From TrEMBL:
Record's signal peptide: 1-30
Intracellular or extracellular location(s): Postsynaptic cell membrane
Site (Crucial to convey clamshell closure to channel opening): I670
Marked site: Interaction with the cone snail toxin Con-ikot-ikot: K788
Protein name: Glutamate receptor 1
Bilayer-crossing regions: 565-587, 641-663, 829-853
Length: 940
């Protein structure tokens, strides 16, 4: 290799010289020579590899063609020398080339394309070509074919990848305006409400550290590198020095030649490095092409080594360009012989090559498959359909294919979820996570020290969160270190300062890998950090003091009616009884014949004395009625009205008694959030800056909006700094303060404070999750571990342990049975039993007095001593086998005359008793009209 007088490089290839001699002479081995030109740059880059690919692709074509042979004619120019480029193109045209390949510079390529368009010589390029500001002109691109992916489609591929990665914000590092133009679709996917996109340009200064530190201080972890391939490795080296290649940083390299860079020293970095590749480096076509290159150079006694995994995109495109051009020549030459023409630039009699336009049109409609996949052009000669490999830097294999992209299907992953999971789990081995949390029972608490005990590290703490992360670590095999967040907050976004606080800020600052506590998954937090699947579901509920129980009252059964009502009822009872007595004395129908069978009896009787009147009204109000009834219309009307009144009072009393006594045991209470919203006496509040406050702030439900307005305007403030403060305020509030909090914390409190309770159901539904930086590679693995613990019942066991067993849990295990809440206890209805007992006792005393009075009456009538009469009556009463009572005629046996006299008196008394009983029966029969059905009383 030497340089010519103009400074260009000349490569001495003996075969190429022979081919040129053949072109001048006419043919070789009977084949027609068809010269093709190529322009390469003089810079010492991969242009040498591209030229080798170009030449040996022609050699392979010539090996299989029988009728023609392609003859390569190569020229070299500087990327910035437009004048020399124009001269070299005219030289190629004068030599009769049928096509011009290259160059790869946008500036020089435009000059070549202009001349080829004038002479109608096909112009084939293999580099990125932007769309002109004025749009595409079909005439200007009539003779140009570009095998490089079309600019807009390639930009869309990058945009799809970013969307698939869920990057909400990112920083673009670029080194030229041309590079920024390639990312226009990426910039267009950013909406007005999305997180800002930062665009940073690097200059020729090789020190990129200040720029990288600025990006690091901004908290950005997603970076797109749109820079030359020779700058990529150095920039990533410096990123590693400033700790910008950690596990939560992600890079996308836009260059299609990123796979050619040796990333050996960065393979073990923790960052995710993704790139795009136009070819499948494991395909047979590329392996075959590389073999041709190496063997051809070996024949020329030159050493050339390149692996298929490191072939440059431009080299592969030159190979495919020669292939598709040769196909067009072959198929068109079969119908009409294609002959080269020597053309002159700037001639007055300008001639154009007659076959050039037909070759270009054929290539546009022809579909080929080469090293770079399917080759399809649009009407403008652009490669609008192509496939891309999405590759990721791995520790073991360098760049590894993880997905493909095409304009029709977008991103399509080729690796299974199992492979991804296994890779992540493997990376977790022997890793130590920093786990941020906050003190709050029962999730994390300081362990109680024993005498002389010194606690350090994770041993300082205990609680649900610690045991949860410990269980996950045993499943995945990592270590962890618990740390407390300095401000003790969960994490809320300040719209004024545009900054986060609490656990979320700790994650954003990369001071922790995980955050575990009662951290609610919210939409706002999800925009800043990632969450695992929920390990606990919950909702907002109301903490309130239990109702105050009233003292027991034996006479609570009287409560449904006021004292005035009871007085009115007693007065009505007496008044109706007196009225019934008076009316019955006045009404003729209530005066009856005592002997219905004697029609000539001059006497009638009235059974409605004051006692019977009182008995009738009492039986009615007790709902039992009476054996005798009035017969006059007036008395029956009075009795009917009284019965109606008694029925209403009895029904109302029995219906309201249980409910009234239940209400008596409790004071007035709230039952739901609606009850709170409707009143202003009982105040209510939430924890400042928590998810519960955010729920009320952002709710569109009218009840919750009204509650938020009430909380916000309340003075003194109803907000608290913690759940414990809210709990204490409820206890001290004497049922004048309610606290809205998450149901899990509320359940923990009510298990230990028996005078507090939960009111109503849940206002919403949400979950607690383990937070981590956005796009953390460990989210899937940790979520899988949480799911595994849930399926095995370990999450339930943990909750039972820390809610109901540890730290005073299980003290308030009595849960009232809803079916017994309205039942009356002995403390409420005991007065009824007292009244019954008193009534029975009084009845017993009256029965004794009646018995003694009867004994006295028998002793007088039988003329015996009271003691003898008492013994005889007791003996008869205790002898339960006797069913008839004998006449009292054997109480004294002193004299026979006494006996006969006693017997005669007894019989006389017995006869009078039978007569009296007959009168009573007849009286009752007359009241019930029994005498009308033909009963005949025995006169004996």
């Amino acid at each position: 290799m030497t340089r010519d007088a103009g400074g260009g490089m000349v490569i001495h290839y003996l075969p190429f010289v022979l081919l040129l001699a053949v072109a001048l002479c006419g043919s070789v081995n009977g084949k027609r020579e068809i010269p093709v030109g190529a322009i390469f740059h003089q810079v010492p880059d991969h242009s040498y590899e591209s030229e080798i690919a170009f030449r040996y692709a022609i050699e392979r074509v010539n090996m299989h063609e029988k009728h023609f042979e392609l003859v390569p004619i190569v020229r070299y120019v500087s990327p910035e020398d437009s004048f020399k480029t124009e001269r070299k193109v005219c030289e190629l045209a004068a030599e009769g080339v049928t096509a011009v390949f290259g160059p790869s510079s946008i500036l020089t390529s435009g000059i070549v394309g202009s001349i080829c368009r004038t002479l109608e010589i096909p112009h084939i390029i293999t580099h990125w070509d932007p769309e002109p500001l004025g749009g595409l002109d079909p005439e200007l691109r009539a003779m140009t074919i570009n095998l490089y992916p079309e600019a807009d489609v390639l930009s869309r591929a990058l945009a799809d990848l970013i969307v698939d990665y869920s990057w909400k914000s990112f920083t673009i590092i670029y080194d030229s305006d041309e590079g920024l133009m390639r990312l226009k679709d990426i910039l267009q996917i950013h909406g007005p409400s999305d997180a800002p996109i930062t665009v940073r340009q690097i200059d020729d200064d090789p020190d990129y550290r200040p720029l990288l530190k600025d990006i690091q201080s901004s908290g950005e972890s997603h970076i797109i590198l749109e820079i030359r391939p020779d700058r990529i490795l150095e920039l990533l080296r410096q990123a590693k020095e400033v700790k910008m290649l950690e596990e939560y940083q992600s890079y996308i390299i836009t260059s299609l030649d990123a796979h050619t860079i040796d990333f050996e020293e960065l393979r073990y970095s923790r960052s995710n490095i993704t790139a795009l590749r136009l070819m499948d480096t494991k395909s047979f076509d590329i392996k075959n092409a590389v073999h041709d290159w190496e063997q051809g150079e070996a024949r020329m006694k030159r050493q050339f080594r390149v692996s298929p995994e490191h072939v440059h995109t431009e080299s592969a495109l030159y190979n495919d360009a020669v292939k598709i051009y040769a196909t067009a020549i072959r198929e068109l030459d079969a119908t009409e012989e294609i002959t080269p023409s020597r053309l002159t630039c700037g001639s007055k009699n300008l001639r154009q090559w007659p076959f050039g336009l037909r070759i270009i049109n054929y290539m546009k409609v022809k579909t080929e498959h080469g090293i770079t996949g399917p080759i399809i052009f649009d009407d403008f000669g652009r490669r609008a359909h192509f496939h891309l490999d999405i590759i990721e830097l791995s520790k073991d294999e360098g760049f590894k294919k993880i997905a493909t992209w095409d304009p029709t299907h977008g991103v399509n992953y080729t690796r299974s979820q199992g492979e991804v999971y296994s890779q992540i789990v493997e990376s977790l081995q022997n890793k130590t996570f920093i786990v941020a949390s906050r003190i709050g029972a029962p999730f994390l608490m300081f362990k109680e020290k024993k005498d002389g005990e010194f606690l350090e590290g994770n041993n300082r703490f205990e609680g649900y969160s610690l045991e949860l992360i410990d269980g996950i670590s045993k499943i995945l095999g990592f270590q962890y270190r618990m740390e407390l967040v300095p401000d003790g907050k969960y994490g809320s976004y300040n719209k004024v300062t545009k900054k986060w606080d609490g656990l979320v800020k700790h994650l954003l600052d990369r001071k922790a890998d995980l955050a575990v506590c009662d951290l609610t998954i919210t939409y706002e937090r999800r925009t800043a950090v990632d969450f695992t699947m929920p390990f606990m579901t919950l909702g907002i509920s109301i903490l309130y003091a239990k109702p105050v129980q009233q003292p027991k009252d034996l006479f609570s059964f009287l409560s449904p009616l006021s004292l005035d009502v009871w007085i009115y009822m007693a007065t009505a009872y007496l008044g109706v009884s007196v009225l019934l007595f008076v009316l019955s004395r006045m009404a003729p129908a209530d005066w009856e014949n005592p002997h219905p069978c004697k029609t000539d009896n001059d006497e009638v009787e009235n059974i409605w004395d004051m006692f019977n009147a009182l008995w009738l009204t009492m039986g009615s109000i007790m709902g039992q009625g009476c054996d005798i009834l009035p017969k006059a219309i007036s008395t029956r009307l009075v009795a009917g009205m009284w019965w109606f009144f008694a029925l209403i009072m009895l029904s109302s009393y029995t219906a309201n008694l249980a409910a009234f006594l239940t209400m008596e045991r409790m004071d007035a209470t709230i039952e739901s959030a609606e009850d709170l919203a409707k009143q202003s006496k009982i105040k209510y509040g939430v924890v400042t800056g928590g998810s519960t406050m955010a729920f009320f702030q952002t709710s569109n439900f009218s009840t919750y909006q009204r509650m938020w307005a009430s909380m916000e305007s309340a003075r003194p403030s109803v907000f608290t700094k913690s759940n414990d403060e809210g709990r204490d305020r409820v206890i001290k509030g004497k049922r004048m303060y309610a606290f809205l909090m998450e149901s899990t914390s509320l359940e923990y409190i009510t298990e230990r404070y028996c005078d507090l309770t939960q009111i109503g159901g849940l206002l919403d539904s949400k979950g607690y999750g383990i937070a981590m930086p956005v796009n953390s590679p460990y989210r899937t693995a940790i979520s899988g571990a949480v799911l595994k613990m849930q399926e095995e019942g370990k999450l339930y066991q943990l909750k039972t342990r820390w809610w109901k067993e540890m730290r005073g849990g299980g003290q308030c295990t009595e849960v009232p049975n809803s079916s017994q809440e309205n039942e009356l206890g002995i403390g409420n209805v005991g007065g009824v039993f007292v009244v019954l007992a008193l009534g029975c006792f009084c009845a017993f005393i009256i029965g004794i007095l009646e018995f003694l009075w009867n004994v006295r009456k028998v002793a007088v009538e039988e003329k015996v001593t009271p003691w003898d009469a008492l013994k005889a009556e007791l003996k008869f009463a205790l002898n339960i086998s006797v069913t008839s009572k004998p006449v009292h005629n054997t109480l004294s046996e002193s004299t026979a005359s006494g006996k006969s006299s006693l017997r005669s008196k007894s019989e006389s008394r017995r006869g009078s008793e039978l007569a009296g009983r007959g009168n009573n029966v007849r009286t009752a029969a007359s009241l019930t009209n029994i005498d009308k059905i033909g009963f005949v009383f025995d006169k004996n």
